[in-house]
Structure formats: structure tokens, C-alpha cells
């Protein structure tokens, strides 16, 4: 861990929740809260001005919602995509898929314990992606129909199968299930370092930015099913 603290921007419209996040992160020796925003437009302005290492983003916010704010900061065409950790609740899970496409680097649920939230920020800061398994299961359960591949996705699926080795395909399936590198390693009887190497190869071969994009792609082209 470097001596430079992780600079965190909090974007949450509920003052009490925002204050709670600030308290949690400010108590960490390796983190610094550099700003806060109560709506999406202010979040975008603050992020562009402050250049935080990680943005903790709520989805449901006034003026500009968290999905659009994420798209503006991390979506296609952004020169330097921001690292956005979306903290969501089950009652807004209909927005999760859109936020994934918008460029979010990770998801946690609002009822996650503080230690998990802190670890999530550290994970995003070091360049990894984070999908809470519960969020992934919700995504699958609620969007099985939306994520079901169309006939036009077949060529894309075949291209992916040709591009990846059999083991890489296995790892991609586990990523899409929301498993961490350690969990994939245990399930496939390989080391976590080996899994990390496979993940890097998968992202490079498929020209994906992170494992969140890998999850979206896996479901969109039907490599894994949302109806299992």
C-alpha cells in the first residue's frame, strides 16, 4: 500500500447516508474524502474538478441520476474514465444493468457492512472491478429476459468462443456468476494468481476494460444464462 491516500468522492442525495459514508472513509488511514455531492450534476462537476481515485455513487439522485452521471464520467468516449463504485439497493435493481453499461467499475448493496464498503473502494482504487454476488444474482434474476441473447448475437458468441481457450471460457463463466478471483481459484483448483492471469488475458482478447464489462458481454451473447 502506498503512502498516498485513496481520494474518495461521495455522491449521495440523502444527507444522513452521505454523512455515514464520510465518517466510515475518513476513519481509514489510507483514505481521504475529497468532496461530496447531493445530486448527479454536482457529482459530475465535482469529479471533473477534484479527480478522485474512486467515486461512490448512488443511483437514485435528483437533477441527474447516478446512471447518467456514471455515463458522463466513465462511459464510451470518455478520455479518462473515472472509477465509479455504485452502492445500490434492491428496490432500484431495475437500473443495475443500465449502470453496468454506463461504465460502473463495481457494485455493492447499501446494506453491506462498513468493512465490505471500505474493501470495495480499495478494490476499485487498485484497478480491479467488484460485483457483489448478491447484485449479480439480482441482475440475473430480474433481467433474464432482457439479457437473453438474440439471433444477431450468435456471431459474437462464436467469435468469443474461438478467441478464448477452454479454461478462459470457464473463468469467464465464473466471473459472470459474480465470483471473486479467490472463489474462482477454489472452484477450478488453481491459484488466485493464475486466475488473475486468465482474467487479464480474457479482458485483453475481448478488448474489455474490466470484469464488469465481461459480465455484461457474457450474458448479452448467451455464454451464460440468466435462467439457470
Automatic annotation (TrEMBL):
InterPro entries: CheY-like_superfamily, NreC/VraR/RcsB-like_REC, Sig_transdc_resp-reg_C-effctor, Sig_transdc_resp-reg_receiver, Tscrpt_reg_LuxR_C, WalR-like. It comes from the Bacteria. Residues 157-222 form the HTH luxR-type domain. CDD domains: LuxR_C_like (cd06170), REC_NarL-like (cd17535). Keywords: DNA-binding, Phosphoprotein, Transcription, Transcription regulation. GO terms for molecular function: DNA binding. It holds the Pfam family Response_reg. The modification 4-aspartylphosphate is found at residue 58. GO terms for biological process: phosphorelay signal transduction system; regulation of DNA-templated transcription. The keyword DNA-binding applies. SMART domains: HTH_LUXR, REC. The keyword Secreted does not apply. Residues 7-125 form the Response regulatory domain. This is DNA-binding NarL/FixJ family response regulator.
Amino acid at each position: 500500500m502506498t503512502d498516498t491516500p485513496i481520494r474518495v468522492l461521495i455522491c449521495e442525495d440523502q444527507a444522513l447516508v452521505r454523512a455515514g459514508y464520510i465518517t466510515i472513509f475518513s476513519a481509514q488511514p489510507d483514505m481521504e474524502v475529497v468532496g461530496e455531492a447531493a445530486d448527479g450534476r454536482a457529482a459530475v462537476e465535482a469529479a471533473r474538478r477534484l479527480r478522485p481515485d474512486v467515486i461512490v455513487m448512488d443511483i437514485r439522485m435528483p437533477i441527474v441520476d447516478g446512471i447518467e452521471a456514471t455515463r458522463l464520467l466513465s462511459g464510451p468516449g470518455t478520455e479518462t474514465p473515472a472509477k465509479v463504485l455504485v452502492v445500490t439497493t434492491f428496490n432500484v435493481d431495475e437500473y443495475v444493468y443500465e449502470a453496468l453499461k454506463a461504465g460502473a467499475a463495481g457494485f455493492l448493496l447499501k446494506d453491506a457492512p462498513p468493512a465490505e464498503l471500505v474493501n470495495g473502494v480499495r478494490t476499485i482504487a487498485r484497478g480491479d472491478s467488484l460485483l457483489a454476488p448478491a447484485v449479480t444474482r439480482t441482475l440475473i434474476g430480474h433481467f433474464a429476459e432482457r439479457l437473453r441473447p438474440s439471433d444477431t448475437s450468435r456471431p459474437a458468441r462464436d467469435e468469443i468462443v474461438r478467441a478464448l481457450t477452454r479454461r478462459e471460457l470457464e473463468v469467464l463463466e465464473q466471473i459472470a456468476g459474480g465470483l471473486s478471483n479467490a472463489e474462482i481459484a477454489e472452484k477450478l483448483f488453481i491459484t488466485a494468481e493464475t486466475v488473475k492471469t486468465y482474467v487479464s488475458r480474457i479482458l485483453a482478447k475481448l478488448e474489455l476494460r474490466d470484469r464488469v464489462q465481461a459480465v455484461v458481454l457474457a450474458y448479452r451473447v448467451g455464454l451464460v444464462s440468466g435462467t439457470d
